[in-house]
Amino acid sequence: MAVMPMKRMTLIAMRRDRKELLQFLQRQGTTEIDTDVADDGIYKKIDVSLQKQIFLKNIKQAEDALDILNRIAPEKKSLLSSLAGREIISLKDFEKDLGRRNEIMSVITKINSLYKENLELIAQIPKDEMDREALVPWEGFDLPLDFSGTEKTKAFIGTLPGELSAEDIYLTLGMLFREADRVDVEIISKSEQYTAVMFVTGNENAEELKDVLHRMNFTKAPSQAVTDSDGTSLTPAKAIERIDAQTARKAARRKQIESEITDLAASRHDIELIRDYFTMRKDKYDVIGSINQSDHVVIITGYVAAEDVPKLEAALNERFDLACDFSDPSEDADVPVKLKNNAFASPVEGVIASYSLPGKGEVDPSMAVSLFYYFFFGLMLSDAAYGIIIALACGIILKKFKNMEPGTRKTFQMFFFCGVATTIVGFIFGSFFGDMFSSVAQTFGHMPKAQADKLLPAIWFNPLDDPIKMLTFCFAVGLIHLFTGLGILMYQDIKNGHVLDAIYDGLFWYMFVGGCVLLLLCLPMITGMLGLSFTLGPTVKTVSIWIALIGFAGVVLFSGRESRNWGKRLAKGLYGAYGITSYLSDVLSYSRLLALGLATSVISSVFNTMAGMVGGAVPIVIGVVLYAVIFIIGHILNMAINALGAYVHTNRLQYVEFFGKFYNGGGRPFEAFDQKTKYIRIKEDI
């Protein structure tokens, strides 16, 4: 377990090389660059907002094009394809593809413009439908709707509310218009909601008729006069034909657009590359705009892991004319934290980072966390079959997707080890899909239960048969876990030169808590409650009392040692000694190992019993099918629910009980200037 030593990096390079230099550092991904450097009056920052806007615009266009392709011509991918990670390409291939940058941008523009045209055509659909619907009542009318009459007559074409006959209309006109007999009424169509009608009268009566029609709630026919290409007005039937023809042409154009976009889907990879290219350029200009530079020189500062320095320094000197310095950070520097562990411990680095990275002077707890993490997960899930399934699934995924992103890979590695631990614990406690072998033997082999239960005996014992023994074991494991945390605390203090602090905060608590534990094991009542087959003798009892008293005295005298006033010091010491109650509550927290382990076993047995009851009550052929259905559904649910519970409570035992004994955290994560891309990653060996 290790927190990687860091070196302070200072690069002084020619300004003309800054872009190539930053691109190189970005591809390596081994440096963290300072972006909050203040102007010093000589060197200053430059404004790169205009360039960044261009890059952001291009990124948006590329993302829009990809989104369009995913909608119209989605790429066929498996459910697990998201685990494949970014495509790794060589720098040579990347630069070769960039030679077609303008061509690719043209494709992006074409996709976006085609889709925009498609959207415009879609937006016209409701209007066309409304125009057609408005013309349907007039479909049998043989005049254009903008017909207004002849030289001596005036025509009014429109609708009246409700379903009316000619007699109804003339009757209403007679009451409102004294010249009703000089009005010609032609009903075009009618329905329950309206009556389409044309009124014709002489020019001398037109104005008065217009007023009367207004009082009758007359509504003019659609005002838009549909005209032909030569400007002549069309009859409603011809207008409907024209709208239908236009709708058909628009539908055909939409299909053509979709076909053209589908043909351009072959450029998907190029568009992804361009999107990532401009993303990297945007990130590069973020740095350019945040570092100090003069007319001829640029200064880049930051941090590099000590082990990366030799190769990086050699590569920089080989490629650029610059001065580089890698030195030890000052004591008060805010040094970023980067962890490095072996294949067994590194998977839990994400668990630690989600809590907090080690602070200054703290050790990396990854190895200790990994040992207990896998073991606790196995104890809580505690079924060999579930462990095999998890380990196999994670192992296959890890082998199949070799370019998986590092964080995702570590997660699957963590669950792989959790699955292995679950398998081991399951066989130790005799659980394989619960009591599957016993259930199947009893249901279909009619084997006596006592004999069936021996088909897969526990290597140690079955917690369902002896829960007190399991509870005692969980308490013992919990105590070891807590004492390991105390041990790490002592190691940290000694490593940092605080030997007395290690004695005061570690050794005395070992003696106090350990002495109390030994004393409890000397009491027959306690050992009987815990189901232990032994009770420590009086000599051990006497020794344990003295150990506990020495530890208690040490805690009382030195817990408040920062106070010079002995009254306050003793008061703080007594309050510190009261902290032994937290050890009691912490140890009791490990009973969750028993609870979740029993929950997995009990629920498994319940589903097996249900499957056995149903499968054994019908003919064997049907019974096997029903047994399998209930068995599969039940165990999938059980594994999913209890695996989630094991994950959550394993994290809790690390964060609350374990870290509470020695770990403060607060470390700042190492933020590498890296390729924050989505689809590709450039590989450049140095």
Offer a few descriptive terms.
686 residues, alpha+beta, 5-stranded antiparallel beta sheet, 4-stranded antiparallel beta sheet, 23 helices, extended
Shape: extended
**Mean residue pLDDT:** 92
Specify the helix fraction band. Answer: 55-70%
Give the DSSP E fraction (strand runs of 2 or more residues).
5-15%
**Main sheet makeup:** 5 strands, antiparallel
The N- and C-terminal alpha carbons lie at a distance of 27 Å
Number of helices: 23
Radius of gyration: 41 Å
By oligomeric state, this entry counts as: single chain
Unreliable parts: none
Give the beta-strand count: 13
Q: How does the helix and strand content classify structurally?
A: alpha+beta
What do these coordinates show?
This protein is α+β, with helices and mostly antiparallel strands and 686 residues long. Helix content is 58%, strand content 10%. The protein has 23 helices and 13 strands. Strands 2, 3, 9, 10 and 11 form a five-stranded antiparallel sheet that branches. Strands 6-7-5-8 form a four-stranded antiparallel sheet, with helices on one face. Helix 2 crosses helix 4, helix 11 packs across helix 13 and helix 22 runs antiparallel to helix 23. The longest helix has 39 residues. The mean pLDDT is 92.
